[in-house]
Automatic annotation (TrEMBL):
Source taxon at top rank: Bacteria
Pfam hit, one: Arg_tRNA_synt_N
Coiled coil: none
NCBIfam families: argS
Gene Ontology annotations of biological process type: arginyl-tRNA aminoacylation
Gene name as annotated: argS
Name assigned to this protein: Arginine--tRNA ligase
Span(s) of short sequence motif 'HIGH' region: 130-140
The organism of origin for this protein: Candidatus Woesebacteria bacterium GW2011_GWB1_38_8b
Domain DALR anticodon binding, residue spans: 464-577
Listed SUPFAM superfamilies: Anticodon-binding domain of a subclass of class I aminoacyl-tRNA synthetases, Arginyl-tRNA synthetase (ArgRS), N-terminal 'additional' domain, Nucleotidylyl transferase
The UniProt record lists the keyword Ligase: yes
GO molecular function annotations of the record: arginine-tRNA ligase activity; ATP binding
Similarity-based family: Belongs to the class-I aminoacyl-tRNA synthetase family.
Length: 577
């Protein structure tokens, strides 16, 4: 990243453009870095320099390039500067710098890519948030693994990172469950029975809407602390949490805090009291006596319902109380909500209300990632053949089974015991599901296609895991374990150089993934690295070759970056596969 900063600094000095950013060309033929500054500032520069000899962005870029070539700081790290297209300025790094970066990777492998960008800053990430009394569905997978990846990325960037699992354990839906449990006199229940009762309530409510009032009454009892209601509700929570933790363990997910919506019961009362005593202002009476917050000053025409007409709380009450606690407890600079796109209006309202009420300062970044849906290959919402919601564990089991079939057919698995095959199948299957999700931009919908999920050839988790295992196999077979770089710079071939040039961008990609809340950028980078390494592997005799020490060093560094990148995505990298 130091090299990129050097180039950027010199460009800023010459052009005067302060918010300038360098791009990394998709095609490495166009350099290691590229800038379109000549194209974007041409008209302005032409106005300021009326006697300029250049008449188009390309000529302006050429003049800038000549000035850049005269800067000693820049040319200490850049081998050449070229102009391409309508005025792109492309920079090619010196091989000496690429070699130094390779040495850096192999000297401190566990630290390569991490940074101090977030030093002294705190980020809170709200993710997963399953609902009590329901099994994990495929719909909760996106929030869980995108949130965990963001957590890992921000932690790697030096932030104090806090994961908060905002469990759905409060609201009218629990009135529905309490009503059904009491009406059916259910003595004992598990997560599956709770789901059936919830479905049965809605089926009956379609015929007899009056039972909705019964559900509301039971939730009011729960809010008022009714002993019987609380005991049944606590049992529902305990059963659900046990199920959630089992799934989290399988996914390799650990979340720092798990505060249910019920945790904010007292905090919600404090918010209400704040309005009553005049400490907080902005509450109005809406239709039917509900209490609302007007947000038109923020460009939001739909008011936020703070309390229902009967005085009971809403999602907004709980989310504002949550926002207030997070600010007071952790004093974060960034709060990320990894929640589905269907909640876009709700979080826009909550964020605006939080700012209006002074619960968070204007400097605090409130970001909603707005992840998309899983779709079936028919383009419709991903469901079972019967039309019901797909259970997450069913998907995980199938992924593991498909991975096991691939591993069992592989020649490299012939020496594995049954236990090793089972363990590896779990690692590869779960990794495949995670990678398939994370390789897509969070906000996009995903067509769930098994042929792409568990695929050893294309852009997939198993392909990256296999490439990492390949690097470890090469190193294990090498007699020379001293990976010193002894090759002369001029002798680096094109395949070696291709890997070398890609390795240098890993720290930048991690930083950008954090800045843009986009783990998919790391997926893109790792896939390209794996392709380049495999091309190098297939064209080069590594062990016993004339450049063995250098090629082993390149192999070791590739393995390091693949493992680090997969770790940020929450995916294990097996040594053998």
């Amino acid at each position: 990243m130091e090299t990129r900063e050097t180039i950027t600094k010199v460009l800023v000095e010459i052009t005067g453009v302060k918010d300038l950013k360098l791009d990394v060309p998709e095609n490495s033929e166009f350099g290691d870095y590229s800038s379109n500054v000549a194209m974007t500032t041409f008209e302005n520069a032409k106005t300021q320099i009326p006697n300029a000899k250049w008449g188009n962005p390309g000529q302006y870029a050429q003049e800038l390039a000549e000035k850049l070539k005269n800067d000693d700081k820049l040319m200490a790290v850049v081998e050449k500067i070229e102009i391409a297209g309508l005025g792109f300025i492309n920079f090619f790094l010196k091989k000496e710098n690429l070699i130094q970066n390779l040495e850096k990777i192999n000297t401190v492998p566990e630290k390569y890519g991490c940074s101090s960008i977030g030093t002294g800053k705190t980020v809170v990430i709200d993710y997963s948030a399953p609902n009590i009394a329901k099994r994990f569905s495929i719909g909760h997978l996106r929030s869980t693994i995108i949130g965990q990846a963001l957590y890992n990325i921000y932690n790697f960037l030096g932030y104090k990172t806090i994961g908060d699992n905002h469990l759905g354990d409060w609201g009218t839906q629990f009135g529905k469950l309490l009503y059904m449990i009491k009406r059916e006199s259910v003595p004992d229940f598990d997560i599956e029975k709770l789901e059936r009762l919830y479905v049965a309530f809605h089926e009956e409510a379609a015929k007899n809407p009056e039972i909705e009032n019964e559900a509301r009454n039971w939730f009011k009892k729960l809010e008022e602390g009714d002993k019987e209601a609380r005991e049944i509700w606590e049992k529902c929570k305990d059963i659900s949490l046990s199920e959630f933790n089992r799934i989290y363990s399988r996914l390799g997910v650990e979340i720092d805090y798990a505060y249910g919506e019920s945790f904010y019961e007292d905090k919600m009362k404090d918010l209400v009291a704040g309005f009553e005593n005049g400490q907080l202002k902005g509450l109005e009476i809406g239709e039917d006596g509900a209490k609302i917050i007007d947000l038109r000053e923020f460009g939001i025409n739909v008011p936020l319902m703070f309390l229902k007409s009967d005085g009971t709380t809403t999602y907004a009450t709980r989310d504002l109380a949550t926002l207030d606690l997070r600010q007071k407890k952790w004093n974060p600079q960034i709060i990320i909500y990894e929640v589905g796109a269907e909640q876009t209006l709700h979080f826009s309202q909550v964020f605006a209300a939080g700012k209006k009420l002074g619960l968070v300062s204007d400097e605090v970044v409130l970001h909603h990632t707005k992840h998309g849906l899983y779709l079936g290959t028919d383009g419709k919402k991903f469901r079972t053949r019967s039309g019901s919601t797909v259970k997450l564990e069913e998907v995980l089991d199938e992924a593991v089974e498909k991975a096991k079939k691939i591993i069992s057919k592989s020649e490299t698995s012939r020496g594995f015991s049954k236990e090793e095959v089972n363990k590896l199948s779990e690692v590869v299957g779960i990794g495949a599901i995670k990678y398939f999700d994370l390789m897509h931009a969070p906000q996009s919908d995903i067509v769930f296609d098994w042929d792409k999920v568990v695929n050893m050839e294309g852009n997939s988790g198993p392909y990256l895991q296999y490439t990492f295992a390949r690097t470890q196999s090469v190193i294990a077979k090498a007699k020379n374990t001293n990976h010193e770089i002894v090759k002369k710079i001029g002798e680096i071939n094109s395949d070696e150089l291709s890997v070398l040039r890609h390795l240098v961008h890993f720290p930048e990609v991690v930083a950008e993934a954090g800045e843009k809340y986009a783990p998919n950028l790391i997926c893109n980078y790792l896939y390209e690295l794996a392709k380049r390494y495999n091309s190098f592997y297939n064209s080069t005799k590594i062990i016993g070759g004339e450049n063995e020490p250098f090629d082993l060093s390149l192999t070791s560094a590739t393995g390091t970056v693949l493992k680090s990148g997969l770790s940020l995505l929450g995916i294990q990298a097996p040594d053998k596969m």
